[in-house]
């Protein structure tokens, strides 16, 4: 597996409120940068998504991929790539740690593309993706209340 990148942000909300936004895949096109369409393909017994298809269009980057969600809790959400066009592998997670009335969200991501990319550029791209995703998640959660 490729090297991981990790980044954190503090969101003024409970872990439950944050998980509710993360789990609402139908709403991603409204707030997640580049996400044009999502489709829950399979659900778990608890009603949470087990597999989700994403259609991404961010200028030069267009992709369709399916993620399997292996873990859903108020402490941790994790996923892995099932299939993709531009990605060979992806593993990611959100770790949620309550901090008073807020929650620290730590996003860990590892992506390998079909086309090899120099490690420095890949890590820079992962950092940009994570930074954007965390800021958008924070905005969505804090403005929902």
TrEMBL record:
It comes from the Bacteria. Coiled coil: none annotated. SUPFAM superfamilies: Bet v1-like. Pfam families: Polyketide_cyc2. InterPro entries: Polyketide_cyclase/dehydratase, START-like_dom_sf. This is SRPBCC family protein.
């Amino acid at each position: 597996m490729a090297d991981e990148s990790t980044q954190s942000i503090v969101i003024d909300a409970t872990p439950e409120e944050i998980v509710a936004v993360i789990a609402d895949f139908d709403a991603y096109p409204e707030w997640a940068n580049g996400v044009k369409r999502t489709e829950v393909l399979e659900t778990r017994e608890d009603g949470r998504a087990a597999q989700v298809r994403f259609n991404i269009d961010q200028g030069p980057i267009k992709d369709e991929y399916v993620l399997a969600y292996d873990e859903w809790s108020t402490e941790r959400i994790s996923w892995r790539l099932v299939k993709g066009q531009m990605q060979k592998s992806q593993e990611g997670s959100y770790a949620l740690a309550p901090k008073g009335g807020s929650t620290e969200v730590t996003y860990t991501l590892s992506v390998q593309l079909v086309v090899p990319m120099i490690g420095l550029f890949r890590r820079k791209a992962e950092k940009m993706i994570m930074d954007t995703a965390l800021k958008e998640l924070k905005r969505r959660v804090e403005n929902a209340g």
